[in-house]
Amino acid sequence: MRTSLLSVSRSCQAVHRLPQNTFVSPTSSLSRHQRIAVLRNSSSHSCEADRSFYVTTPIFYVNASPHLGHLYSAVTADCAHRYKLLRGFNSKFTTGTDEHGLKIQQAAEAAGKDPLTFCTDVSERFKHLFDSCNISYTDYIRTSEQRHRQAVTHFWTVLCDKGLIYKGSYEGWYSTQDESFLTALQVENALDSSGKEIKVSLESGHKVEWMKEENYMFRLSAFRSQLLDWLRGNPRAVQPEPFHHAVLQWLQEDLPDLSVSRQRSRLRWGIPVPGDAEQTIYVWLDALVNYLTVAGYPDKHDRWWNVAHHVVGKDILKFHAIYWPAFLLGAGLPLPQAIYVHSHWTVGGKKMSKSVGNVVDPLERSQMFTTDGVRYFLLRQGVPESDCDYTDNKVIKLLNAELADSLGGLLNRCTAPALNPAQVYPSFCPRSFPREREGRAVVEDYDMLDAVRSLPAVVERHYESMHAYKALEAIAACVRKTNGFVQRHAPWKLDRRDGEDQRWLDTIIHVSLECLRTYGTLLQPIVPGISNKLLSRLGVRPGERSWADVNFLPRYQGTDCPFEGRALGEDCGVLFTRLESPNLDKQKPKKTKTEISK
Q1: How far apart are CA 248 and CA 103, in angstroms?
Q2: CA–CA separation, 116 vs 135, rounded Å?
Q3: Which of 51, 118, 121, 500 could lock 108 by a disulfide, CB 3.0 to 4.6 Å apart?
Q4: What is the average pLDDT score of the chain?
């Protein structure tokens, strides 16, 4: 989606064409129960809906190939989707491409292609990236699809029938590159390449031109108080908290009405306004409705739309947290349960730009660092509240430290024939590691057990708020504790001929494998490939990998462990290939195995 939306400023003159008495108050046409449900986002759903979850990414504009930020949005939503599946939810996850607009129309003409062919080519690049990076979407929506056209047309008609759309004339600065009108305060003087003075957008730097046209307007100004009620009554409607405050701050000022159409003579590549062949529905209204299209609007959307969650970049927050809810209120539909906002990725501290030459190709990086490697890095380093910086060296250092050395090294130690010659999940000895703390375990070992036992609840809390980086911090800290546990007791030094030593060795390995099983289960939404490899090596079957299956170290609690005595799975090599050199153009990653300390 684009980063700005057509809006009517105080300086723009809108000529109202509808008599005043045709306007229907946004909520007056709803029953009291419906008004409460809309404004409070009532969750009085069916039992089926209570176990349903619907998460969306923005749909991505096909003006350029995908970049790292697009993948970050997709991986964030994918993590939420996979997590909900682990919890036993029915989950729907959608992504796709935003394909209408003047910029696309002009780009297609310049390429000598019809708009649909042009859009298909770029859309396929996004789809290929997401497929390559294991994005498990259940629906891939394109705004050029017929199902979407039908949904948008119906949505427009509903708003129109309620008196929320009127015809007027619009005058102001317009940026074709940004597909948006701008106020006088949003432009500045600049010089083009020939030295000629021009006006450009303050936000994007793109050239703008003065334009006047007749189009349709949406009565956004009528919804300010209801949007404030919604946000104040739902402090977690927009997350993280700083973005919630930002939206409230925007709403302290008057909301101008929005232009929601363009003249057909200017914009042919788009959905026509119902009943007016001279106008095209503006691309932002068109694009936002995609979330409803996938939910089954207008006939079968209730189940999914009642549990909708959006993942968006901070640059399109205003459109998702103000304009979109206003459209939904006008149409009498529930508002999203939550809007999760993330910040941007920079490179070397600078914004990614083609002119600077620092745009990161996510597909190329996924081939360099593996799909799971890139997924892990983005979710481990991505902090939603602030911009994050990308360098190849950061990726290499993080993945080597946490996936290759810490997690991979722990798995290799505990499954290597030198320590586990029988290649089984060994037995736990309660006398060696008693709950009364009288055996061979020390205080630090009990602290580790407490940390790992509480880890699922910690990770759950962070997954629920889409703070994956905090979940990964907690997991990484526990992995370090487990490595410390093994290193502290040096099982390779124990005498296997001594029965007590053998029982203690088996207990050390059993506890470590239980820790690994927990980490592998909790990491599935982040790195599904690595998690599958780890759990398969431990002999954990596909049906034993849900959130409810974690049940860490039951033998310590005096109950049976279903894995005790079970043969380990096949050794498929290192868990993660160590990356040896930042100069990836000249050197390929070299496979190594962490040696067992002797």
Answers
A1: 32
A2: 24
A3: 118
A4: 89
- Per-residue pLDDT tens over the stretch 276-332: 999 999 999 999 999 999 999 999 999 999 999 999 999 999 999 999 999 999 999
d(CA 6, CA 183): 10
CA distance 48 to 569: 37
Is pTM, for the whole model, over 0.85? yes
Cα 187 to Cα 190: distance, rounded to the nearest angstrom: 10
- Of 23, 36, 38, 17, nearest to 221 by C-alpha is 23
- Cα gap 305→336, rounded to integer Å: 8
CA distance 526 to 378: 10
356 against 440, higher pLDDT: 440
pLDDT at 484: 98
Q: How many angstroms separate the most distant Cα atoms in the chain?
A: 96
Tens digit of pLDDT for each residue in 340-371? 999 999 998 888 877 777 889 999 999 999 99
The residues facing 262 across adjacent strands are 280
Q: What pLDDT is attached to residue 557?
A: 93
Phi, psi of 44 (to 5 degrees): -80, 65
Domain architecture of the chain: domains with CATH: 391-567 (1.10.730.10)
Tokens 């526990």, residue located? 478
Hey, what are 425's tokens?
A: 């999940």
Q: Taking a C-beta distance cutoff of 8 angstroms, is the pair 336, 310 a contact? A: yes
pLDDT band (50, 70, 90) for residue 592: very low
Tokens of 525: 């939404």
Structural contact between residues 311 and 466, judged by C-beta atoms closer than 8 angstroms = yes
CA 400 to each of CA 150, 201, 533: distance values in angstroms, whole numbers, following the listed order: 50, 43, 17
Cβ atoms of residues 514 and 553 within 8 Å? yes
User: Residue 171 is encoded by which pair of tokens?
Assistant: 């005058």
Among residues of the chain, what percentage have pLDDT more than 70? 88
Q: Which bin fits 349, alpha (ψ -120 to 50), beta or left (φ > 0)?
A: left
Burial of 212 (0-12, 13-18, 19+ CB in 10 A): exposed
Sign of the dihedral defined by the CA atoms of residues 29, 34, 36, 42, in that order: negative
DSSP string, 582-594: S-TTT-------P
Short-list 307, 215, 201, CA closest to 263: 215
Binning the chain into helix, strand and coil, the percentages to the nearest 5 are 45, 15, 40
pLDDT tens-digit series, residues 15-24 = 334 433 345 4
pLDDT at 587: 37
The angle at the Cα of 521, spanning 92 to 133, to the nearest 5 degrees, equals: 55
